[in-house]
Amino acid sequence: MESELLKIFDDRRNPLGVATREEVHRVGFWHETFHCWVTSLINNQYHIYLQIRSNQKKDYPNLLDITAAGHILANETIEDGIREIEEEIGIHVTPDKLKTVGKIESCITMEGMIDKEIAHVFLYDKPMNLDDFTLQEEEVSGIVRAEFNAFREFCSEKVQSLLVEGFKLDPYGMRVPVKMAVDLTDFVPNDGTYYEQVADKIRKLLYE
């Protein structure tokens, strides 16, 4: 995975060529990613789904993250990133069913990694339930959902905790129900206002 080739960009977002994923994160090149957030209308209220990252992940194990996401390889188009949805959470989606949220940039610096993402963000809104998800266990260890308006308030830091419920896989691959209050330390860290921007843009797509 670290040897995957990604397109890279300078700080003005001018193309520079390609580099390995390892080099991209070590040097801190801007690169493109695919993000898909899944929502569903349940009992007349929208809910948003979050993945729990596998404890096998090198980066941010066990933290809450975007429903499905991944890097866009050098030989792929933005639309090719849709493969991440079926690979990670087992939901087959065609490009025409996705709504464009927009492009959001973020930069996270931590020990041993500089992650500068140009994220192409999409929304998949469809009536579904937790049983519809089939997880790629080395990537995802659970799925939870939150009421969308509560999620939006949480992302704008109007409230400090968020109630989520769903399931997590035990060491034997069995689904264990989860219902808990989480805070920002339970989420993959993101630069600046990424989560707030996502919540606001998704709200416009759902309600306007």
Radius of gyration: 17 Å
CATH topology: Nucleoside Triphosphate Pyrophosphohydrolase
Poorly predicted sequence stretches spanning 5 or more consecutive residues: none
Determine and state the CATH class.
Alpha Beta
Strand percent estimate:
35-45%
Gross CATH architecture: Alpha-Beta Complex
Task: State the helical fraction.
Answer: 10-25%
What structural class do helix, strand and pairing data support?
A: alpha+beta
- Major beta sheet summary: 9 strands, mixed
Which whole number gives the mean pLDDT?
Answer: 95
Q: Give helix and strand order, one letter per element, not per position.
A: EEHEEEEHEEEHEEH
How many distinct folded domains?
A: 1
Globally, the shape reads globular
User: With helices defined by DSSP (H or I, 4 residues minimum), what is the helix count?
Assistant: 4
What is the tally of beta strands?
11
CATH fourth-tier homologous superfamily: Nucleoside Triphosphate Pyrophosphohydrolase
The end-to-end span amounts to 40 Å
Short description:
The protein has 208 residues and is of the alpha+beta class. The chain contains 4 helices and 11 strands, in the order ββαββββαβββαββα. A hairpin with a 2-residue loop joins strand 3 and strand 4.
Please explain how this structure is put together:
The N and C termini lie far apart (40 Å). With 208 residues, the protein is an alpha+beta fold. The radius of gyration is 17 Å and the shape is globular. The mean pLDDT is 95. Helix 3 (148-155) packs antiparallel against helix 4 (194-207). The protein has four helices and eleven strands. The protein has one domain (5-207): Nucleoside Triphosphate Pyrophosphohydrolase.
